[in-house]
Amino acid sequence: MELIDGNAIAKAIIEELGEAVSQLNGSLPCIAVIRVGEDPASVSYVRKKVKTAEKIGMRSRLHVIPEGTTRDELFAVIDQLNADPEVHGILVQAPLPGDLDEVEAFNRVAPEKDVDGLGVVNMGKLVQEDPAGFAACTPSGVIELITRSGVEIGGKHVVIVGRSLLVGKSAALLFLRKGKEGNATVTVCHSRTKDLPSITRQADILVAAIGKPNFVTKDMVKPGAVVLDVGINRVDDATAKNGYRLVGDVEFSSVAEISSHITPVPGGVGPMTVAMLMKNTLKAYRQLNNPS
């Protein structure tokens, strides 16, 4: 079994981006992050994104809007950033509190600055395999982890457990693309799938993104499969300092015994999301400064 080290691969990508940014002339790439409210997880994620941008040499802007803000107030901030030529990428941190609609917010971001890749235009570009589009960061990170670990994707049967906009749907489209990072046969499973274990056992590459701790067990995995665990769940642990520990959607210890490659939680897919966000921001900067 080979452990896929997301921290090490993300670090390599961040170093590559830092080198690329250091070679730029003129203004630097800038990502604007919008956070609504004070959700502790969102605060932590946003802090990580801002620090990573600074490490690479990019500029960042953080817009914190109080919980209880209206749809129009949120849209006004997004519109201001859409119109600002000094901003190249915009991220609306999810989840949004209250009645704010995440999909509406994603679609309000100008497509050319939608570095999270979740707006309708960029999802459509992904379907059409338009290289100018932006793909969602977490599934893009999954692809990078696989390819940088020397695993061939073409011709493999990929089974994705979970059909969310954020991961499952985008991951399926990425694996289906023509080219060396695609050409897979893809099956997407979800909560209504019948006899799920019989399907997951067919996977050469299994992506777990269902949001249930330790859901994928050893009996659901084909020996020699590549297992990518996208889940990150808090479970109570009286022995831990803060009273909980983080686990994935995969029962790691047992599945690791039979898989050829597997990602840990934490330290697997998670660090890649931020790295791919920065990669998309540099891409947006280049496209906005050199429109075809």
What characteristics describe this protein?
Rossmann fold; 292 residues; alpha/beta; three-stranded parallel sheet
Describe the protein's topology.
Elements: E1 2-3, H1 6-22, E2 30-36, H2 40-56, E3 59-65, H3 71-83, E4 89-92, H4 102-108, H5 120-127, H6 137-148, E5 157-161, H7 168-176, E6 185-189, H8 196-200, E7 205-208, E8 226-229, E9 233-236, E10 244-247, H9 252-256, E11 261-262, H10 270-289
Parallel strand pairs: 1-11, 2-3, 2-4, 5-6, 5-7, 7-8, 8-11
Antiparallel strand pairs: 9-10
Helix pairs in contact: 1-10, 2-10, 6-7, 6-10
Descriptive notes:
- The protein folds into 2 domains: 25-110, Leucine Dehydrogenase, chain A, domain 1 (Rossmann fold), CATH 3.40.50.10860; 137-270, 3-Layer(aba) Sandwich (Rossmann fold), CATH 3.40.50.
- Helix 1 (6-22) packs parallel to helix 10 and helix 6 (137-148) packs across helix 10 (270-289).
- It contains 10 helices and 11 strands.
- Helix content is 39%, strand content 16%.
- 42% of the residues are buried.
Structure at a glance:
With 292 residues, the protein is α/β, with parallel strands linked by helices.
Cα end-to-end separation: 45 Å
Label the CATH architecture of the largest domain.
3-Layer(aba) Sandwich
Average pLDDT, rounded to a whole number, is 96
Structural class: alpha/beta
Secondary-structure element string: EHEHEHEHHHEHEHEEEEHEH
Q: Would you count the extended β strands for me?
A: 11
What is the CATH topology assignment of the largest domain? Rossmann fold
Question: What shape does the CA trace take?
Answer: globular
Summarize the biggest pleated sheet.
6 strands, parallel
- Report the CATH C-level class of the largest domain: Alpha Beta
Number of domains: 2
- Radius of gyration from the CA trace? 19 Å
**Which ranges are low-confidence, i.e. pLDDT below 50, for 5 or more consecutive residues?**
none
Number of helices: 10
- The residue fraction in helices comes out at 25-40%
CATH superfamily name of the largest domain?
A: NAD(P)-binding Rossmann-like Domain
Estimate the strand proportion.
15-25%
Strands side by side in the biggest sheet? 1-11-8-7-5-6
